[in-house]
Write a structure and sequence with these properties.
Strand 8 (about 340-345) and strand 9 (about 350-355) form a beta hairpin. This protein has a 4-stranded antiparallel sheet with strand order 3-2-5-6, with helices on one face. A 3-stranded mixed sheet has the order 4-1-7, with no helix packed on it. Helices cover about 50% and strands about 15% of the residues. By secondary structure, the protein is an alpha+beta fold. The termini are far apart.
Amino acid sequence: MIRPARSSQALLLCAALLGSRPAHAEPSAQELSNARQAFESAAVLEAEQKWVEAAEKLRQALAVKDTPGLRFHLAHCEAEQGLLVEAAADYDRASELLREGAKAPDVQKLLIPASAELKRRIPHIKVEIPDDVANPVAELDGKVVAPSELSHQALNPGAHQLKLAARGRSPFESSFSMKEGEELALRADLPETRPAPSSPARSPKAQAIASTGAPSSERPSVPARRSSAKLYWLVGESVVTAAGLALGIGYAVAGASARDRVQAAQSRIDAAAPGNPGACSSPGTLSQACTDLHTAIDDHDRDGTLSTVGFVAGGVGAAALVTTWLVYPSATSDGARASVEPFVGLGALGVRGRF
């Protein structure tokens, strides 16, 4: 890493605070004074190798005025913390400001070699996804990313976790660690899932034997009020099951829509700033696309959580429904042939009588 000499810091300070061309209204004299004080504090903290505190002071100055010098120093502090991807984005932003006409000759001389050296240190991962996997959803370190980015994804050194999922496929998950300059290739195998074989339907007599241990003609009689209680339980559990499934399916559809929005927003960002993983870290023409991307990611995470809650509720309701149907005794009067029993079928719930 190229470190700016202490003797050049005064020149970089002038470039940082006075050399850039403003995009909006010029900051006030008080704001410029505060920015100079923040930069001076950052320079002292850099000399003491307090990189986190120095970076915070530099960001305070950047909030007043975005300049190549401030970006250069911020990138240096981030690189010393191991935040190589973020540092590369700040070096790129400093280059952009110079191309736009900002005057910072001292920064310009140091910027190209510093940026080139840093980019050689950044590790990358290449993930191969089978061609027959449709619409995969990828998460890298807990954040949704476009699968296309995984073909050459820049990462900071350290531990990382990758998750991939697709409809009709078993999920893929991998934990790995990256070193500076490392290139890692992964193949994401997402085998097709096979539906579980359905159980054959049992006859009414077999169901009666399974629930009581004896044929229906030999079951002990119970009070008639139990039939009504069982019916109420079945109705309530059916409602819980239906509501849970409706909630789960509804938010699953919404989550798929949010995932499409994530991919669309990411495609817009990739088209406008190809190969720039930090495109959203600086304000500019991509602000709307970045906002759309973050909103879509939040919607995707929320919809996924609510869909899971709905399916869990539906599953609990279904399990309770089956348990009540099999275990709860039905009422038949001693010595009487007439009976009324609840029944549950696919898409139907009611009572039936025998006389």
